[in-house]
Amino acid sequence: MNIYVCIKQVPDTETKIKLNADNTGIDTAGIKWIMSPFDEFAVEEALRLKEKNAGSTVTVVSAGPVRVVDTLRTALAMGADNAIHVDAPETADNYRVAKAIAAALKKEPKVDIVFTGKEAIDDGAAQVSQLIAEAVGIPYVTVVLNAEYSADSVKCRREVEGGAIEVVTTPLPALVAAQKGMNEPRYASLPNIMKAKKKEVKVLKESDLGVSDADQKIRYKNLQLPPPKQAGKKIAGDPATQAKELARLLHEEAKVI
Amino acid sequence: MAKVLVVAEQRDGRLKKTTFELIGASAAAGNETHVVLLGDGIQGLATELGHYGANTVHVANDAGLKFYTAEAYAQVVVALAKSLNPDVILAAHSPTGRDLMPKVTSRLGVGLASDCVQASFEGGKLKVRRPLYAGKATAEVEFVGAGPQVATIRANALGIPKPDTSKSAVVSAVAVTLAGVKTSVSEVVQGQAGRPDVTEASIVISGGRSLKNAENFKMLEEAADVIGAAVGASRAAVDAGFRPHRDQVGQTGKVVSPNLYIACGISGAIQHLAGMRSSKVIVAINTDPEAPIFQIADYGVVGDLFAVTPALKDELRKLKDH
Q1: Do B13 and B138 have their domain in common?
Q2: Into how many domains does chain B fold?
Q3: Residue A241 maps to a domain
Q4: N or C of chain B: less Cβ packing under 10 Å?
Q5: Do A217 and B110 touch (CB under 8 A)?
Q6: Both A65 and A187 in a single domain?
Q7: What's the CA gap between A96 and A127, in Å, rounded?
Q8: Which of B173, B188, B216 delimits the end of a domain?
Q9: pLDDT-based confidence at A228, cuts 50/70/90?
Q10: By residue range, what is the domain housing residue A254?
Q11: Predicted ipTM?
Q12: CB neighbours (10 Å) of residue A110?
């Protein structure tokens, strides 16, 4: 099988966000970059599928500035065979990134299945998976907790509201977007990390993929940090008094109960 | 004034309150508000949409729309959007809306502002703000180029308007001919009955690792049931196996903004705060007076959650019984 995984490099979840000078993005100085956590489940799922199907290859794809190559190498160290870096500006929006990645996938000889994380933890847009699938022309299933594969289809259990689970079957090729818990992602071993450093990463430019500034559909401006909150009222007393006063404040002052 | 198309959502024949939020915000701005309602056997729901301010309800009733699939629903919404040519298309950032709308915008060749936490209309244009880094920052979204402005809006961001039963909408049947639908839903396994989803609830009560075990979450569930709240959990509590991942609030879980968030035994790691700091009112109950959660709490209770939470449940019940 020809298995593809689209991954995104994001700031570590511990990052304290600072804005850039014109408030159109963040100050990236000093940020530690990681693979978006949901993408780790996608890479792991791809590797497991490869291990069950002899002769398969796993190719990881990531769009962004040159630093994303580090994250591609993380996936190579986990066990992916090939990597493609789609060279795109930091400010590229979801539509533009998806169009470029889809075009890169369409250049490949054959795509049997594409894995992604259900969303990236930086913009949290939850769009690129669906946009890639649509641009490639294949069905998608998102927020997948568990998948069973057959030769020509995949049966997914996907999470919907209130803890309900939908069982969805789609023919292959298809895109499957992973939710946390789909599997337990492996750690890369030291020898594999060393080997991954030497692997070739293919680079495709936006111009190779028919993508340009005209594909930018949204832009961010006037970024703001959340307004600092004043620490509120501390409620003193024994537990019964505290509970009574809290209930009164929520009812009479905050009017939320 | 703008022409707005709202994608309504129903599950098992009940309209979602997020749909009322979207219609209400559009109608309050004086827009020409169209609503598309999709499903099977759902014609009866159109009247209620009128009460919230819809001018026209386009009903797409078809056996192929009984279960949501992106492929089938997108065909209907895209065809309607092309014939109506609205200035704005709004949907909820719900499991359905977030799955569906990228397919719709891809086919319309336009951008999508997803998971917006603020939305308003200015001079016939939609103005939205959305979170980045799970709410560690927010950004205004500028739509570039022609075509409708499309956004999905987070639950509770706009508020539910009061229905007016004297209002009614024109009901228009949509001719549905579905083609090339490859995905199929064979089963929907129901989740916990009677308790709302953390992303949709107007009140969320969350517990951390201090709850010590899964069993102790019953205490939070009992308090939650008194006030119709959802039960959430910190990443630490989820990783410890006390709660399923679907209940996790934070940057790698769900990002929520209810009217009231009660954090019990949660210290407030940066990634948890990111997931809930936009809640309108925040209560923290924690033994450690130095816990970071108190820095963003409107009401702080330094105390033992095992004593305070049951007492709070009793007080809330008294309020409800009045």
Answers
A1: yes
A2: 2
A3: yes
A4: C
A5: yes
A6: yes
A7: 11
A8: B173
A9: confident
A10: 232-257
A11: 0.95
A12: 7
Q: Tell me how far apart the alpha carbons of residues B156 and B200 are, in angstroms, rounded to a whole number.
A: 7
Q: Do A162 and B253 touch (CB under 8 A)?
A: no
How close is the nearest chain A Cα to the Cα of B170, in Å? 30
User: Is residue B192 included in any domain, yes or no?
Assistant: no
Mean pLDDT for B92-114 is 98
Inspect the interface and report whether the beta carbons of A164 and B185 lie closer than 8 Å.
no
Per-residue pLDDT, averaged over A144-159, amounts to: 97
The pTM (predicted TM-score) of the whole model is 0.94
Same domain membership, residue A128 and residue A162:
yes
Classify residue A7: in a domain, yes or no: yes
Residue A227 has a pLDDT of: 85
Closest CA of chain B from A199, distance in Å: 30
- For residue B246, is it within any domain? yes
Same domain, B16 and B165: yes
Check: CB of residue B96 under 8 Å from CB of residue A160.
yes
Q: A56 CB contacts (<8 Å, ≥6 apart)? A: A1, A2, A3, A49, A50
pLDDT at A87: 98
Q: Say which residues have a Cβ less than 8 Å from residue B89's Cβ, sequence separation at least 6.
A: B4, B5, B6, B7, B77, B81, B101, B104, B148, B149, B150, B151
In a domain, A220, yes or no: no
Q: Do B278 and A226 touch (CB under 8 A)?
A: yes
Same domain flag for B153 and B209:
no
Q: Are residues B30 and B84 in the same domain?
A: yes
The residue from B152, B173, B194 where one domain ends is B173
pLDDT classification of A24: cutoffs 50, 70, 90: very high
User: Residues 211..240 of A with a Cβ closer than 8 Å to B: which?
Assistant: 216-226, 229, 231-235, 239-240
Of the candidates A127, A141, A246, which has its C-beta nearest B102's C-beta? A127
Q: What does the alpha-carbon distance between residue A75 and residue B62 come to, in Å, rounded to a whole number?
A: 44
Distance from CA of A212 to the nearest CA of B (A): 14
Judged by CB atoms within 8 Å, which residues 145-164 of A form the interface with B? 155, 157, 159-164
Chain B positions in Cβ-Cβ contact with residue A257 (cut-off 8 Å)? 203, 227, 260, 316, 319
Judge whether residue B204 has pLDDT over 80: yes
- Average pLDDT over chain B reads 96
> Which letter does DSSP use for residue B112 in this model?
-
Residues A208 and A237 reside in one and the same domain: no
Number of cross-chain residue pairs from A and B with Cβ atoms under 8 Å apart: 260
Domain enclosing residue B214, as ranges? 203-321
Cβ–Cβ gap A13/B252 under 8 Å: yes
Residue A74 pLDDT grade (very low, low, confident, very high; cuts 50, 70, 90) = very high
User: How far is residue A68 from each of residues A36, A86, A203, measured CA to CA in Å?
Assistant: 11, 9, 11
pLDDT in tens, B48-76: 999 999 999 999 999 999 999 999 999 99
CA distance B53 to B169: 8
Chain B residues touching A123 at Cβ < 8 A: 132
**What average pLDDT score do residues B148-170 get?**
96
